[in-house]
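ugh finaly. both done.
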Amino acid sequence: MLDLKKRSTLKAGLLVVASSMMLAACGEKTETKTAAAPAAAPAPAAAPASGPLKVAFVYVGPVGDGGWTFAHDQGRKAVEAAFGDKIQTTFVEKVPESSDAERVFRDLASQGNKLIFGTTFGYMEPMLKVAKDFPDVKFEHATGYKTAPNMAVYETKTYEGAYLAGVIAGKTTKTNKLGVVASFPIPEVIRNINAFTLGAQSVNPNVTTRAVWISSWFDPAKERDAAMTMIGQGVDVLIQNTDSPATLQAAEEKGVNAFGWDSDMSSYGPKAHLGSAIIDWAPYYKQSIQSALDGNWKNGETWWGVKEKSINLVNVNASVPEEAKAAMEAKKAELAEGKAIVFAGPLVDQSGKEMVPAGKEAEVGMLKGMNFYVKGVEGSIPK
């Protein structure tokens, strides 16, 4: 269901011309870069006779946001280092979830990119439309649910990171009031709010959680205002499902605690930072690109978490009590073993209605369509 990012230099030839045309049309920044071959590349796959595999990434935020887009771009850089001259990557940043996305996808496909990653929920419909017009191009959409013969979906179980953060929060809060700066009321974000609450309740049943919705993925000013509002209401531990470190910075300023989200944000608030729930996209991007190089890429859905080393809680503050760290590590070990502990029954919603009975676990359909708050979350989900 939260520094500002990196950049590079365009490379020569037709790629520069094509990139320049796209920049003139949409005002976005593109980067194409071919890394030197590393000492140890992944499984051998010869570069095609026609040249390297051209891979493009489309980002909703700036690569320097310190969170979501930064994490994806770190994954892009990791595959450059891993595959060397077998691939050539391009990225376009700050692409709105609108008709602009369709235009950018279409431009990238027209420029000869054969594998294109769209990294936000709102790109689903534009990507689906473009995929039909370019059947020889492979498209992958992050966090969506629609596929096509040449379009796959990939996602990480960010709720597992939120749950682990919740365990630390439940052990460290003094007011028993937790807060979430939330982006949009989609299942991914609702899952994360619920998981954060359940993690905290697993060690402290007196915890309650409130959320402030800002209707944006990346708006540092709104993120800060939302955090400040909750701090004023007595919240002393915060997390966000937005893309900047503004929530952590607000916590640092006000002397309360918070978590980094998607990337390690510890440098933005060293005293306030309790830990960062991070995503490592590199394992998935490496697998997908390798399959494309090998000629066995397939559509479908992939959902990775702690078990696959895609989700983790890192850089836990030295001030966190050992008891809290031990509790979190124990939960992390269970997740690494593949145990479904986050949305396991008995699970009830705000009204006390049983959603998952004891001895059962939430089905994937419920998780991917989650539209309720668990008991302990205050307020209502925006329509």
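ok and the 2nd:
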Amino acid sequence: MSYLKTKIECLKDFLNLGKSKPCENEYHIKAAIIWIYKAQDVTKDGGVSRMYDLRRGWGASYPETTGYIIPTLFDYYHLSGDLESRGRAINLAKWESNVQMENGAIQAGTVNSNPKVPTIFNTGQVIFGWVRAYKETGDKKFYNSAEKASEWLVETQDEDGAWRKYSSSVALPGPNTYNTRTAWALLKAYSVISKEKYLVAARKNIDWAITQQLDNGWFKNNCLTDNDRPLLHTIAYAIRGILESGVVLNDNRYLELARIPADILISLQRNDGSLAGRFDSNWRPTVRWSCLTGDAQISIIWLRLFEIFGKEKYYLAGKRINNYLKSVQDIKTKNKNIYGGIKGSYPIYGDYGKYQYLNWAAKFFIDALILEERVSKKFSL
């Protein structure tokens, strides 16, 4: 493609606010998988590129999100029988072990970030990948990596259950409520390593996070950039961590506390199925753009609540937001760098991942559609 044609295509991508008619989930999942494969192939080092930026091109490999892309690829393998997906998942898990720091942690930022700083949240997210890879393959290398990372998380946790040290260098300093997802990762580790201290540390963090929750379900200290107006992305992290921990620990209190914000967000779903990208402490939307990653994550939460409680409102809300996400996925473009990708924001010039297609947005989009498929079949919907 000539330089001029490339510039014209990019300009179209900048200005295109149109939506596509949603197709079958399988079609959209496959397109997003193709984009994930592309994001891995362009890095040359084996990890998954953080994003494709319309202004600057592909970014470096991102250990944090590469880690939790691994379970998504295994899920796709089991859904489709695509052996390539399984092979890529295993190779990504090996790559994560190779970039793991000596103390067991995962660094902040992309692999080319210097200095390399150990980070709590990123470490937790890669545990998801190692545990799943171990369960799928039985390879002790993945068990050892997950154990080493989990030991570091337990050692660095404060007595009240929060993590105040080793926050991400690209986020507000801790404690961060969205680390409930790190607590959930420790429960994943416990499922294969069976060290009681992992279970204890996870529960301690969830109990601390609950102290940050207002009566209306909103969480304090819960954003990468603005704790007064947290992103839907980190709101979803916090809710999901509490929800899934409640399932693992059979703790109905956790489940009910997760339902409070999930129910409020249903009432805030917009006519097109989307949600606003940020909310203040009174659940007032503070931006007009939508955080597509957060939309997909909330879809997953609603569909999980449908599985648990059987309330139809959760299924309908999840399906609506999935249809919205399918409508804004790039599936008509001839640009292979964005085909099947999911933008950070919609419109693409929104403040979250501005002008970027994020690997974790594609990951959660795939997860949401696979879960919708599972729920639909399970309940004959």
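summary for the 2nd one i guess: The two ends are 45 Å apart (CA to CA).
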